[in-house]
Design a protein that fits this description.
The chain has 368 residues and is α/β, with parallel strands linked by helices. It is built from ten helices and eleven strands. It has a nine-stranded mixed beta sheet, sandwiched between helices. It has a two-stranded antiparallel sheet with strand order 6-7. The protein is globular and about 55 Å long. It starts with a helix and ends with a helix.
Length: 368
């Protein structure tokens, strides 16, 4: 026990220092909690209660025409158009910026900063990491609700070292992104949380655009200025949710990896799995449900969709019951067209993270 106390105190100091250094208090709180659980508590397996008896019956697509129709419905809900707009570009691009948080990355040639400004003065700031030695492929990286994409530095460096360019995003209102004061029907409010977005919904505007348009505008720019031969995507937590849905709509994305990024509604029986505003919009998910999004992200020539879950995740989506829909998705993909779907379970980590196990699986799947 004395050794454990020393480890806990040391970990507390290290995580506190890191949290203060990068300005992410939520990162500190969650990871200290994880350290405590790891050393002092035998983490029990948490599987959600599941009552759904006809999982395959929830998938309402059986051919490519129905897939295309679903895509149109989703795109129309977000962009109010039948197609994702290909002429939208970032509002500003700063070439070769200096950010001390990323100064020590190996194989880094330069960082370009992209800023996307959207309605109600909500913005998104992305970093384009360009390697010295490149394989001419790029990875979209999206951080979750914990903080900005600085928290994904290990993942960014891992794939930068392998020659991938990286375009990194934080979720709206998080990280370097702003938190504007917006005039609503109930008065002026500073938008600190995604749950406030509900106040902005109108017949001709969906706040979901704040999540997806930054990736679209950035990809439009990259297609115009670069000649990447492959676009892939990795997301953790809310970022895993985001890359899942984005790749389901935009077939420019080849291989998508969602780590602890969400489960179908029938597996959200635990309160911690319920999700934020963007994950539970009734009208939106009535058009396309999560199982259908998984199928759509998997479909296509040389396309893959991979889910990785942390079995003992202290945050959310823990457990080992994901196999109940895995073969259903695989069979549906085989029925419709070419494509690939796979689930991996990390049984070692006790932290809500992209672990070494996950990085290894992603590396292998990217190369296959």
């Amino acid at each position: 026990m004395a050794v454990r106390k020393i480890i806990l105190i040391t970990s507390f100091i290290l995580v506190l220092f890191l949290g203060v250094y990068i300005g992410e208090s939520e990162y500190f709180e969650r990871n200290f909690q994880s350290v405590f659980i790891n050393f002092f508590v035998e983490k029990e397996l948490e599987n959600p209660p599941i009552y759904e008896k006809d999982i395959s019956g929830l998938i309402g697509i059986s051919n490519k025409n129905e897939v295309n129709q679903k895509r149109i419905e989703v795109i129309n809900y977000i962009w109010k158009s039948d197609n994702i707009p290909r002429d939208n570009l970032p509002n500003s691009i700063e070439i070769d910026i200096i950010d001390e948080s990323f100064n020590n990355l190996s194989n880094l040639e330069q960082i370009d900063k992209l800023t996307i400004n959207m309605r109600h003065d909500v913005n998104s700031i992305a970093y384009h990491f360009i390697p010295i030695e490149s394989n001419n492929k790029i990875i979209i990286y999206v951080q979750g609700h914990d903080g900005g994409f600085i928290l994904g530095k290990k993942t960014i460096e891992t794939f930068l070292d392998k020659g991938y360019s990286i375009i990194a995003f934080s979720m709206p209102l998080i990280g370097m992104n702003n938190q504007p004061v917006i005039e609503t029907d109930v008065g002026e409010i500073i938008f600190l949380s995604h749950k406030y977005f509900e106040l902005l919904e109108e017949n001709n505007f969906s706040p979901l655009i704040y999540f997806f348009e930054p990736i679209n505008a950035s990809l439009n720019y990259l297609e115009k200025e670069y000649d990447y031969e492959e676009i892939n995507a990795i997301g953790i937590s809310g970022g895993g949710w985001l890359v899942t849905l984005y790749s389901s709509m935009d077939e420019r994305v080849s291989k998508t990896f969602s780590v602890a990024g969400g489960v179908p509604f029938f597996m959200r029986g635990l309160e911690k799995n319920f999700g934020d505003y963007e994950q539970i919009i009734n009208e939106f998910y009535d058009k396309v449900n999560y199982l259908e999004f998984y199928v759509m992200s998997s479909l296509g020539q040389e396309r893959k969709y991979i889910q990785i879950f942390n079995k003992f995740d202290p945050c959310c989506f823990s457990g080992d019951e994901f196999h109940i829909y895995e073969n259903i998705i695989k069979n549906k993909v085989d029925e419709i067209d070419e494509g690939y779907f796979q689930i991996y379970l990390d049984e070692k980590t006790r932290i809500h993270e992209i672990s070494d196990f996950s990085l290894e699986k992603i590396t292998v799947e990217l190369q296959d």
